[in-house]
Write a structure and sequence with these properties.
The chain contains 10 helices and 5 strands, in the order βαβααααβαβαααβα. By secondary structure, it is α/β, with parallel strands linked by helices. The termini are close together.
Length: about 200
């Protein structure tokens, strides 16, 4: 099976792109969805997070305190690395398991931090980057998350740069235009990937 890694900066439109591919019948494996499932109460990953970060990582009802954890790792590289060490191997294992059950010609794995982590280089054959001008990205992020410009700039700065993502891209979607222009690009890529899948063999 041909496996495409879908990535892009924050608020670039990855979810919209994934949804349109899904509407074309393409299976989407979303690592954010897997991450949420792995930290529901009773899951080993949640227990590991509590053991490392303490009980403050939980709400009173036993759910993960995402806001606290996000703030905890935001400016602390060691804390971020610790969380990644807990989550990434488990997420990767689930991705492999879900891919192994698919029969379609190709699949898309949505990985927001694909470029940063490099944990999926051997799993995906092509990297599809959703690209957006940084000014538009900031505008959409502020509107989506209802944050101020300083917070939006900080969120962008915490990610890899646009240039680094573009350098990693095998394929590119320009999401600066209209919904119709976005759909046209996705349809062309769908045809392209379907053809590639006919001669693709997963390593």
């Amino acid at each position: 099976m041909l496996t495409i890694g879908l990535t892009g900066g924050i608020a670039s439109g990855k979810s919209s792109v994934a949804a349109q591919f899904a509407a074309l019948g393409v299976p989407i494996i979303d690592t954010d969805r897997i991450a949420r499932e792995l930290v529901i109460p009773g899951q080993p990953a949640l227990q590991s997070i509590v053991e490392h970060f303490g009980a403050q990582a939980l709400h009173a009802d036993g759910q993960l305190n995402r806001a606290w954890l996000r703030q905890r790792i935001f400016s602390d590289p060691e804390a971020r690395a610790a969380l990644n060490a807990i989550m990434h191997p488990r997420i990767r294992a689930r991705v492999e398991d879900e891919l192994g059950k698919l029969k379609q010609p190709y699949a898309i794995v949505a990985i927001p931090l694909l470029v940063e982590s490099q944990s999926y280089d051997d799993l995906v054959q092509r990297v599809l980057v959703v690209d957006l001008d940084e000014a538009e990205q900031l505008h959409r992020l502020i509107a989506r998350d209802k944050i101020n410009a300083n917070q939006a700039h900080a969120a962008l700065s915490a990610q890899t740069t646009r240039a680094q993502r573009l350098a990693r891209a095998d394929d590119l979607i320009d999401n600066n235009g209209s919904p119709e222009e976005l759909a046209a690009q996705i349809n062309l890529l769908h045809e392209h990937y379907t053809q590639l899948a006919k001669v693709s063999v997963r390593p």
